Every structure is written in C-alpha cells, then in structure tokens.
Amino acid sequence: MTLMVSYDVLMRYFLGEPQLFVDDLTSFLLVAMIFLGAGPVFCRGGHIRIDLVTSRLKPKTQRRMRVITLFMGIAFLVIVIYETMVSTLAAFQTGRVSAVMNYPLWAGMIFIPLGLILMVFFMGVQLVNEMRGKTEKGHEDISMEISH
Question: pTM of the prediction?
C-alpha cells in the first residue's frame, strides 16, 4: 500500500497524472489487512485487555468470565458475519462498483466476513481451551505486562 500511494504521489506531483486505481485498491487492501489480521492477533493475545476488575477475581471465576465473554463474542460475531455476508452478496448481485475505477465492491467487502469467520475460529479455539481448563499460550504474558 505504501508503494502504491508513493507511486501515486510521485506521478501526480512530477507528471500531473494521478493514478486513480490507487484509491480503490488501497481501500480494499486496508479492509483486508484489518479484518484478516484480527483473528491471528487475538490468537497471539495481542488485543488490548483491561483486567482491572477481573484480575482481582479467583482463577476459577476468571475462567468462567472468559468462557462467558468468549461465548458472547462468538454469538455477536455470528450475527455480524451473517449481516456482512448479506451485504456482500447484495453488492455482488446488484453489480455495485466503486466510484472511481468501477471495481466490483464485493471484492473488497468479502474480506469483512472472511476475517470475522477467522476471528470466530480463533475465539472458538480459545473457548474450547478455557472450557478444558487450558489457558491459551501468550494471553497471560501480555496481561501481566500490561498490569505492571
């Protein structure tokens, strides 16, 4: 994305020829990076966690809270996945295109439900581990670093 934007800036500045495709493609790539990266970041324990209250609870209660919040998060994401799939499918069926280069919008939109499906997968793995009494590697290390 940086190379494409730099190319666009150079072409616009020196030759007076902006590269219109850059706006659409970088938007699609940004959506892909955010949504396809959320699940792996969760898996590595990289999301921000605020444990001001939960860190004072007994370990068994903490585990129960994690199970409940993971279940709620998965349920919420399933709803969001459904809605974003409906929206993506509608964009595909109606032939909606981007404003500048007329790229099909579904091509960028599909990264949202795909990334959320990946997130649900990693949350499901974490949920199963919590229910079995196994804490996911990396999560405690990060919360310990933030707490100190």
Answer: 0.80
Domain total in the chain: 1
Contact 22, 7 (CB under 8 A): yes
Give long-range contacts, CB 8 A cutoff, 24+ apart: 129-137.
Answer: 130/63, 130/66, 130/67, 130/70, 131/67, 133/63, 135/63, 136/43, 136/45
Condensed to tens digits (0 to 9), the pLDDT of residues 70-92 reads 999 999 999 999 999 999 999 99
In a domain, 57, yes or no: yes
Tokens of 88: 């993506």
Inside any domain, residue 6:
no
pLDDT in tens, 87-118: 999 999 999 998 888 999 999 999 999 999 99
Whether 69 maps to a domain, the answer reads yes
Whether residue 105 is contained in a domain is answered as: yes
Q: Quote the CA–CA distance of 94 and 122 in Å, as a whole number.
A: 33
| 3-class secondary-structure state, position 53 | coil
- Listed in order, strand segments (DSSP E) in 28-99 are none
